[in-house]
Design a protein that fits this description.
By secondary structure, the protein is α/β, with parallel strands linked by helices. 39% of the residues lie in helices and 15% in strands. It has one domain: TIM Barrel (Alpha-Beta Barrel), CATH 3.20.20. The longest helix is centred in the last third of the chain and has 19 residues, at 180-198. The structure holds 2-phosphoglycolic acid (PGA). 2-phosphoglycolic acid is lined by residues 9, 167, 172-173, 210-213, 231-235.
Length: 252
């Protein structure tokens, strides 16, 4: 397995000016060499982040969403080639907040993932069960169904390999992170589906964890077998704290 990956998901925070300031502050942070780091600003701030990065390639740029058509009459949407123009490397699809508030489904997430790979951007398919699904013993069933439906037609490898982020909905922004034991169980189930779908190529897919990850618990997750990285919301909003989180993620 290649390097681990940490993605900062700013959600609906930081317009172009504040986003540029975040990048300038973050560039002062020392980062472990053996770690991939990416930041996912809102659409409107992507260009400013790109400009603030200058020639620096770290952090890599990620998008929080995309539309699956390449061009056309889709008022308000942003296409994969537009993201590609800005050198975006990763794009979230199917985040639970998009599923909950904006009608994202397994099928729309899948279409987005395929469209992203067509222009060389790695899709990060987000999956995860609700608190009710976990309480009723349906967590594994729910996540398995989301993964199976979301990866149909999506490539595991190549220039833009698939990524999966397991994010239990009840753990997002709640301060109640999932236990490494439960994550391991889920990641093993996800790996099983990937192996069945992709054979040996399944090992090219990085499977991340997200949900109340912070600088204090990151190491426990990153050293749990089967976890290839993290998707970090709240704890990525402060550049210095996010720098500490990245440093704390690796035993040096
Ligand atoms: P959180 O968000 O770190 O605030 O829980 C994670 C996410 O939604 O990607």
């Amino acid at each position: 397995m290649e390097k681990k990956l940490i993605i900062a998901n700013w959600k609906m925070h930081y317009g172009p000016i504040k986003a540029g300031a975040w990048i300038r502050a973050f560039r002062r942070e020392r980062l472990p060499k053996d770690l991939d780091v990416a930041v996912a600003p809102p659409f409107i701030s992507l260009a400013s982040v790109r400009a603030s990065l200058g020639r620096a390639s770290i952090p890599a740029l990620a998008s929080q969403d995309v539309y699956w058509e390449m061009e056309g009459k889709f008022t308000g949407e942003v296409s994969p080639p537009m993201l590609e123009e800005l050198g975006i490397q990763y794009c979230l699809v199917g985040h639970s907040e998009r599923r909950k508030h904006f009608g994202e489904t397994n099928e729309t997430a899948r279409k987005k993932a395929i469209a992203l790979q067509a222009v060389g951007i790695s899709p990060v398919l987000c999956v995860g069960e609700t608190v009710v699904e976990r309480r009723d013993g349906n967590a594994l069933k729910t996540v398995r169904a989301q993964v199976r439906a979301g990866i149909k037609g999506v490539k595991p490898d190549g220039k833009a390999p698939l990524h999966i982020a397991y994010e239990p909905v009840w753990a997002i922004g709640s301060g109640r992170a999932c236990s490494p034991h439960d994550i391991r169980e889920m990641h093993e189930a996800i790996r099983g589906i990937l192996r069945k779908a992709y054979g040996a190529k399944a090992s090219d897919v990085r499977v991340l964890y997200g949900g109340s990850v912070d600088e204090h618990n990151i190491l426990e997750y990153m050293t749990t077998s089967g976890i290839d990285g993290a998707l970090v919301g709240t704890a990525s909003l402060d550049p210095a704290a996010f720098g500490r989180l990245c440093r704390a993620s690796i035993v040096t």
